[in-house]
Design a protein that fits this description.
The protein has 10 helices and 10 strands. The chain is α/β, with parallel strands linked by helices. The strands form 2 sheets. It has a 6-stranded mixed β-sheet, with helices on both faces. Helix 5 crosses helix 7 and helix 9 crosses helix 10. It is globular. It starts with a helix and ends with a helix. Bound molecules: adenosine-5'-triphosphate (ATP). Adenosine-5'-triphosphate binds next to helix 2.
Length: about 300
Amino acid sequence: LLQLFRPLDLLGFVYRTIRQGLIDMAAMFRLIDAEMEVEDAPGAPALNIARPGIIFENVHFGYDEDRTILHGLDFEIAAGETVALVGPSGAGKSTIARLLFRFYDPAAGRILIDGQDIAQVTQESLRAAIGIVPQDSVLFNDTIGYNIGYGRANAEQDDIREAARGAAILPFIEALPEGFDTQVGERGLKLSGGEKQRVAIARTLLKDPPIVILDEATSALDSRTEQEILATLNRVARGRTTLAIAHRLSTIADADRILVLENGRLAEQGRHAQLLRRDGLYAEMWARQQAERTEDARPA
Ligand code: ATP
């Protein structure tokens, strides 16, 4: 009987190999698709960062010519500053992150990092300088160690451990019977949203970029997990220039500065307390979210 199962085993192996190949390819094509949009300028130098300040200078952008998404955005993030970006759904928050990573070029205006126009430097050097912690990170069907080590080529086991520690996921990994060799993804251990985000944080700590984009998860985490994730996100932001895209305002009340985006325009900016006093869009969003929280907390 065992003989009979051997070909089936092989089939399973072939299936898994092809499937993994397809997943990797899909991930790759998404990147390549985006990369097709922009090209390196001839003879472009590498981005050279001493102080990683970011400037958006009159940036106009639309995915299609007939629909403008960003209408002349002007803002600055000083080196080492943490700036939160908030605004209603569809306001253009993720679009700003994509432009900073140069998935697209602005239709007009410039984006500068440490005084250099990002359209004039190599994409490779630009992307090496920016770490992204996305809302929902893609995990490869491989070990959890591989998934963290992916942040930096040739990462040593010790570095991977340190990154896991920094992202507060080390105790979780060490409690697994196979530790860092545990398979995750489709055919392995399923990770929760919070755990996946910690893997992404660990990857970013390992990459150690001067600039970080945090894309906060939309889905509500329970408040203890939210607090823990926030603490680790703050650790990633420390000493780096950080742009945090936030959906829940409660998480960014201590940002150095908050930019409020509305229909692709900067409606307001300031610290949490200043914006509440202003009694504009931010104050309105805050009041609405507070009301929703109270609603959620009420027993059914
Ligand atoms: P959310 O809070 O819901 O994530 P957001 O502020 O991040 O929203 P963006 O994702 O930047 O908003 O989208 C801004 C606008 O651009 C939206 O109207 C959206 O429909 C449009 N848009 C986003 N991505 C694309 C795309 N790839 N092609 C065409 N339009 C797009």
